[in-house]
Amino acid sequence: MNNQHKSGFVSIIGRPNVGKSTILNWIIGEKVSIVSNKPQTTRNRISGIYNDEDCQIVFLDTPGMQNPRNKLGKYMLKASTSTMKDTDLIMCVVDTSSYIGRMDKNIMEQLKHTSNTKILVINKMDQIPKEEALKIISMYDALGIFDEIIPVSALKGDNMDSIVPTLQKYLTYGPKFYPDDVATDQTLKVMISEIIREKILLYTDEEIPHGTMVQIERLKEREDKEIVDIDALIFCERSSHKKILIGKDGRKIKGIGMAARKELEAMLEKQVNLSLWLKVKENWRDNENYIRNFGFDEKEI
Ligand SMILES: Nc1nc2c(ncn2[C@@H]2O[C@H](COP(=O)(O)OP(=O)(O)OP(=O)(O)O)[C@@H](O)[C@H]2O)c(=O)[nH]1
Ligand SMILES: [Mg+2]
């Protein structure tokens, strides 16, 4: 092992929808964390492992921080704050809006009181003119919290190349924590369920995307053919939501299934036979047992 090899953990934190998961996927070079235009897409701590000759960085993507409205929300906020405390480097992501809201202030306040290295990534630079960008950068610079500020556009790839070298400066010498071919520590079942949930986020609006959960009931490769059979259960919170998810003549659920199957086939490099089943679990997001069974266990964060 090269004794100049660096390694470390970097948490990615910030408000919902600022592009944390998009940034992670760009750096890793593959989709490890689902993305959508709805806030609160990421629900758990998700690792993405970056490797090059000189370093290994274990990124931890987290749920967007916002005031919780239910027990799941409380879990999500805890997942973000505890991840932040667990890493030497914190990469805080904001977008280009010049308004710093209450939660942003709260995050900045927490950051002020940690001794970790703090990098600010200002994302979505494609949305504003250059003069405005400079104003926003100096606004954050004036806070005196961040060791580095990196303006980027994850969507366009602008300046994204400078994130890893900047982080590298602050990493310490150390070995790899994961083998080179591991991109994330999520199980295959979790990744599949997330891809299905991403398509639900894409196809639905208002409360429905936030109130759905996907569980993989069966994942089996056929012995005689290159086909993977996947059965997934989609939980939603009300029978009215189930109706919307099914859609007129079953069109919505078919669309979700088709979009998910296409992506799963590309990921697994096999034909996928996907069956989706819908079930109602009233207000599961406020039920301790349900959320624990769905993998949101406070003891694990
Ligand atoms: N215009 C623009 N949109 C972006 C950029 N980066 C991400 N987005 C979009 O912003 C939305 C949110 O992206 P995500 O990566 O899911 O955001 P997130 O911060 O992980 O969100 P949560 O998981 O909900 O906290 C998606 O629609 C992205 O396509 C960018 O650089 N420019
Ligand atoms: Mg996310």
TrEMBL record:
Entry GO terms, CC: cytosol; plasma membrane
MF (Gene Ontology): GTP binding; GTPase activity; ribosomal small subunit binding; small ribosomal subunit rRNA binding
Chain spans, region G5: 152-154
Cell membrane among keywords: yes
Membrane topology annotation: Peripheral membrane protein
Residues bound to GTP: 14-21, 61-65, 123-126
Domain KH type-2: 196-282
Segments of this protein annotated with the region G4: 123-126
Coiled coil recorded as keyword: no
Gene3D superfamilies the record matches: 3.30.300.20, P-loop containing nucleotide triphosphate hydrolases
Region of interest called G2, as start-end residue ranges on this chain: 40-44
Highest taxon listed in the record's lineage: Bacteria
Keyword annotations: Cell membrane, Cytoplasm, GTP-binding, Membrane, Nucleotide-binding, Ribosome biogenesis, RNA-binding, rRNA-binding
Stored InterPro entries: G_ERA_dom (IPR030388), GTP-bd (IPR006073), GTPase_Era-like (IPR005662), KH_dom-like_a/b (IPR015946), KH_dom_type_2 (IPR004044), KH_sf_prok-type (IPR009019), P-loop_NTPase (IPR027417), Small_GTP-bd (IPR005225)
Family that this chain belongs to: Belongs to the TRAFAC class TrmE-Era-EngA-EngB-Septin-like GTPase superfamily. Era GTPase family.
Binding partners and assembly: Monomer.
Function: An essential GTPase that binds both GDP and GTP, with rapid nucleotide exchange. Plays a role in 16S rRNA processing and 30S ribosomal subunit biogenesis and possibly also in cell cycle regulation and energy metabolism.
The protein, known as: GTPase Era
Source species: Filifactor alocis (strain ATCC 35896 / CCUG 47790 / D40 B5)
